[in-house]
């Protein structure tokens, strides 16, 4: 069965942005903690690396932005990296993620800047198919007309993820933000929320439409695809996660891949280098979406190429691995 892998990258790279808006609305639902969540099964195998030079070390952790309650508690490896780190750095600073004005920013970025509508940009056959699907649920395309396809795509995917029990406020990054707040650890971000929104808004319209078409052609495959992605992340299976996400995105939506993944990785690596270079500064934990750690375009391999010592931290792994390249 053909997987709808393009959309899977929304969960690894872009759903974190949409989840912010949802998290604002769901602020009354606290992020899970080890004290409040009973361990129903073994913790997820972490996508965690230690990058070091002679003086400093940075832990780099691959997050999944939408998780379930039984994905907690986290691995002891993550707990140790968190405790050892004097600062926790996320894609976006927590204060921006938690800013009540962020949700409105997100909706503004999702709209058409040139006065067009969704009905106008979609091919007639796709527009009619979307209308039929919406009509079965008592909804009209007019309710989506003000938004670009990338936003509609994420909205549909997040609706399915919610039905499956995934919650943005239970994502690993949200959990660690709450832990940092509780422990009084300094936090930071690799980019601003405005940068993230600009990235999504700048993806080519043709590729936005292609991704939405994949969803609407076979919407019943979405739960299985999301389940596969989550299983691959939970088991720490780099090769499977890469195949389900990054490789297919690169093939089918190359410009979106460049904007969402490559260019952001290239902007983040020098910032991580600054954490490592110079006089001893202590350890830092960097938490980003798992997509950004995969393959030769990923942060891990880019740091390895800079000459840093890179080792995977994975007590649960049957065979020790030192990076994404070796795990393929």
TrEMBL record:
Residues 1-23 form the signal peptide. The keyword Signal applies. InterPro entries: TraB/PrgY/GumN_fam (IPR002816), YbaP-like (IPR047111). The keyword Signal applies. Keywords: Signal. It comes from the Bacteria. Pfam families: TraB_PrgY_gumN. This is TraB/GumN family protein. It comes from Lysobacter panacisoli.
């Amino acid at each position: 069965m053909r997987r709808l892998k393009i959309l899977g990258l929304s969960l690894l790279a872009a759903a974190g942005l949409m989840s912010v808006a949802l998290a604002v609305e769901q602020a009354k639902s606290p992020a899970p903690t080890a004290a409040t969540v009973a361990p129903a099964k073994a913790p997820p195998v972490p996508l965690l690396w230690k990058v070091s030079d002679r003086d400093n070390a940075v832990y780099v952790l691959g997050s999944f932005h939408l998780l379930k309650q039984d994905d907690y508690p986290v691995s002891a490896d993550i707990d140790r990296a968190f405790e050892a780190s004097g600062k926790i750095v996320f894609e976006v600073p927590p204060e921006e993620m938690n800013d009540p004005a962020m949700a409105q920013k997100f909706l503004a970025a999702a709209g058409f800047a040139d006065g067009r509508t969704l009905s106008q940009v979609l091919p007639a056959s796709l527009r009619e198919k979307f209308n039929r699907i919406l009509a079965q649920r008592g909804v009209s395309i007019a309710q989506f007309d003000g938004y670009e396809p990338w936003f509609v795509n994420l909205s549909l995917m997040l609706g399915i993820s919610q039905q499956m029990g995934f919650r943005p406020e239970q994502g690993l990054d949200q959990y660690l933000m709450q832990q940092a707040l509780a422990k009084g650890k300094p936090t930071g971000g690799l980019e601003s929320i405005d940068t993230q929104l600009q990235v999504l808004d700048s993806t080519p319209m043709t590729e936005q439409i292609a991704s939405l078409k994949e969803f609407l052609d076979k919407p019943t495959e979405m739960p299985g695809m999301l389940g596969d992605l989550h299983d691959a992340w939970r088991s720490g299976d780099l090769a499977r996660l890469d195949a389900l996400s990054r490789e297919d995105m690169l093939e089918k939506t190359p410009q979106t891949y460049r904007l969402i993944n490559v260019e952001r990785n290239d902007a983040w690596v020098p910032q991580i280098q600054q954490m490592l270079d110079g006089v001893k500064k202590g350890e830092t934990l960097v938490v980003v979406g798992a997509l950004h750690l995969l393959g030769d375009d990923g942060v891990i391999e880019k740091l390895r190429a800079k000459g840093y010592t890179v080792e995977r931290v994975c007590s649960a792994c049957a065979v020790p691995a030192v990076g994404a390249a070796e795990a393929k």
